[in-house]
Amino acid sequence: MGRTDKMNPLLAFWTKYQKQIIAALIILALFIIGEIATGHFLSIDQFFLTVKVAALVAMFGLCQMICAASGASGLDLSVGYVATIAAIFAARFMDGKNENMLVGLLVALAIGLVAGAVNGFFISYLRLPALIITLAVSNIIQGIINVYTAGAKIDGKPSPALVTIFAKMTGVFPNILIPLAVMAIIAMIIIYKTKWGQELLAVGSNETSAYLCGINVKRVRFTAYVVSGVLASFTGVALLAYMNMAFKDMGSTYVMPSIAAVVVGGVSMAGGDGNYIGVILGAIVLQTLTNLFYALGLGEAGKWVGIGVVLLAVLIAYVREKKKR
Amino acid sequence: MAILEARNIKKHFSGVTALAGTSLSCDKGKITGLLGANGSGKSTISKIITGVYSADSGDVFFEGQKVVFKNPLDAKKAGISMVFQNLSLAPDMKVWENIVLGMEKGKGIFLDNADARRISREILDRLYPKINIESKVSALSPGEKQIVEIAKALTVKPKVLILDEPTAALEQEQVRALFRYLNELRSQDIAMIFTSHRMNEVLELCDDIVVFRNGENVGKLDFSVDKKDPDRIVEMITGQKADQATRKVYHDLPDEDILEIKQFKYGNLLEASLKLRKHEILGIGGLAGQGQELLLNVIAGAVPDARATAVVDGKEVPLKSPKTAIRNGIVLVPGDRNLEGLFVDNSVYKNIRIPKLALKGQPLFTPDKKYREEAEEIVKRLNIVTSSIDNPVGNLSGGNAQKVVVGKWLPFDIKVLLLADPAKGVDVIAKRDMYELVSKMAEENDLGVIVYATDNDELISYCDRVLLMFEGRIVAELNKEEITDQNLVAKSMHMEPKEASV
Amino acid sequence: MTETKKSPFLPKIGKLLKSPSFIVICILIVMLVITASLQPGFFKPNTINSNINSFAPLILLTMGQAIVIIAGGLDLSIGYATSMMVVILTNVMQKDKPESAIPAILLAFVACILVGTINGLCVGYLKLPPLIVTYATSYIWLGIGLFIAPSPKGTCIPWVRTFYTFSAIPNLPEGLKDLSKILAPGFWLIVIGCIVWGIVRRGRTGRYIYAVGSNRENAYASGINTSKTQLKAYILCALFAFLCALFYAAQNQSGDARMGNPLTLKSVAAAVIGGIALEGGKGSVYMGIVGAIIYSIVTKIIFFADISSSYQTLVAGIVVLLAVSASLIFKFIEKREKLKVVK
Questions:
Q1: What ipTM does the predicted assembly reach?
Q2: What CATH superfamily classification does B4-228 receive?
Q3: Domains of chain C with bracketed CATH
Q4: Which residues of chain A have pLDDT under 70?
Q5: pTM of the entire structure?
Q6: Residue A300 touches chain C, beta carbons under 8 Å
Q7: Minimum distance, in Å, between the CA of residue B129 and any CA atom of chain C
Q8: Chosen from A213, A216, A223 to mutate, greatest number of chain B CBs within 10 A
């Protein structure tokens, strides 16, 4: 009775992490293809460079993952402009001085908190579609930025310490990987080990069951968007340090890739899934793919077609798999 | 000669026999009543005839020809229309659009809407003129929706009309209108199969009846020859075991209420109050869909709009969320296991752990080690067959999955355990195990149990008291020895057995 | 029945007041009045002409978007699909070769059918989630567009320019000339769109689009081929993108693979403002036009109210937020009636 047939541990590992393993294998395959085709693709430098660029997408990907995990077709299109406005104000308050770093950071996070709360209120408590609400909030923030920049110049600089953390390299090693690793560890612990993380995944995988188990579904989903907002503003500060300046549309190009990273990483957009390692791998896959297409001389056109086809393939593969059950 | 005949139909659903070589036939200009308890195979045979399911073996003959339909539309075009219990309406569309849906006639490249309106109006004028064909289906009452569903079956004049519990959602006046119309159809030589749980309706309307029990055709009464004897019909439905299936042992009930639900009213859907004693197993019965599950949901705090209040063990508790209910010891095992009870993709362990989150004073970090031990113990105690507690619960059999839904509440300080149709899709042994566990828990842990069961056997074998519901109200109460199959069937159908017998 | 015969008018008014369309149209009228009072010469032919032309692309795409939303889907690839078609049109056409317009239009049309078919197959037959899958295909359209025109380029031969302005036709009769000054080609494209949808709506496909969006399983139970219906809806949507592409090609006379992108989410928002619920099965494609006009006019008002143009996106965002929240009122009414309706 009970545990009769113990599963082969290797098989168990595979079934649990297959999507992440597949993502890692895709990265490896892309590097090998690149090496064969161009002769100078597979190297430590190249790898770290890829990861460095992917890191920011992965950070935004965490926002998307948390919103998606909360279910109800969750996503957050406002992360780009939340990051931008956070960066603009952080730059202003930091003014390139280390002693102002904390103030700048706190202002940025506060902005993210408010934006996330607005998203969460409309999506969770009023049950309106996340796609439309986060888009509208995104527009509003973009509008605020426009109004602000119409009256004042964007100036200020990130604090040098932040620049060291997010933009500089130590040898071939990009420093940004350290905060990303810290983020990943904290995210994994929060999602898999804490009460809130458990509630989040429960709400995403079956809202009705979660409600009947006594979970406050609305509050959990609300906090998911608040967390997403705060993380987006934090990423905005990272972006500020990375670019060493703030400008009007600095965050908007990251929104769509961050969603793609979640999908390619094998994390379900339908909710209840929270493996952040997958998202990081997804971001790296996308970035490697981009680099590969540039290296092959296919340029942007090839890159976008490639990303689209890979996304489609992943969707077909994973959704099919779900139906079999 | 019979216009429609199904011969020796066999059908299994994942190992469970739904139909064991069953036959059914009907004649022109006659209404054949099809009777039987829940799960006796009435709906299944209708669905096989109209092509919703395919039979494992056996044949269907229509006008002397062997027929196999791909889907209900096929059957409808051939002349066999079925009115489904689960509605097939598009809620955002108008009544007349729904009536012709799938059967639209074209006029050039356009649809002939004038004709569609005319057909709909004609059918409804004779059936139930009160419905405005221009209103949206979502704005109709359940009864009116059912009537639209019936009208939908009549767009192409059928030769055979199968009605699967058409009156379940209807109001009295609508039933009268429907019967008038069915009589009219009968005079037009249309053959009809009429399924209903309501005895008086069957006696009034049908020319003959067929009774199904456990997937078998157990008898036929032709009212032109046989007497209309309700007692005999009830006996046929339940089998002879009716009197034997009563249970001998009941719980000793201390004179102490564990739960009281104060009188409340939820729109027009539900109006009830009840008391539950310690150690008591209270059954909720009646025809399916009379508000039983809603009542359990209200008690579990899942319908805050009902604004009901409970007194649990002397303490007044507003039933405003499942969380409050759980914290006060009221826990629910919901009816739809996969949709409401489980997190199918998650492991057994996670399913057992998640409800803990509702408790007060949960630490920030989940004490996994402690909880895993607890989960292992539950698995052991309930004999849940699984390779490990990390196995996704979706891989478990129905019975074992159900044990997880019940088992996750074991570590809690339960005062009231609510079970909504806990034996649905569960095999006999698992069912017995579960009821025995519940019964033992009731005595040992000082709790009260409320169980809604669609199967009368469960009510008879395990309950100390049974409340029967009808249209959202509690209409009858049976105590201990009164809980017999005869009584349950009669009272559910809203009919006194003694008065009705001649 | 007798009741409705006694006073056929009054209950209808009550119903009208409760209907979402009525409120949306009221909002439109208020907006138009405000704009008319702010914009100098609002009723002058030239102004009407330019207003129609500036609203036309969003209106066309919103109509297409509305169709797939009603069918229970969503199309996030509509913007890039449009720009891809613009790029094809403007790059196949060659200056000084009027006949090159024919293969250009044919090729763009083939692309349009392909776009609709691929999206429709993924959503209708493979049953992939519309939101993500059309987002994925949007990258493919973008890539193809960039492949043809890595940077904005292309040309448009004169007679094709009639899709933007009738002045492209040299010898237009005087009477028509005056008319064309008021009713710009953008207007006629919308009329074509309305006619196409009007025909489809009155046929089987239109009926089934509503049925599938309203409840897919029930529609299937009624014998409707739900997969095919959704495929048709996506092809129709792509047709509207094609009309929009013709307009853009004529207007800009060059193709930019990214130009249509901002319109994607705007078209979804405009459809929602027009009372088309994202759950599907509800609303009217024509109300999508109203939604699109409201969305576009907000920008106009800001422009003419002498508020700094930097407020445009801000106000547009707030309008969307308010409009979507307003839909809650109807849900609330519906819920209350449901509780009441049960005897």
A1: 0.82
A2: P-loop containing nucleotide triphosphate hydrolases (3.40.50.300)
A3: 43-331 (1.10.3470)
A4: 1-7, 320-325
A5: 0.85
A6: yes
A7: 7
A8: A213
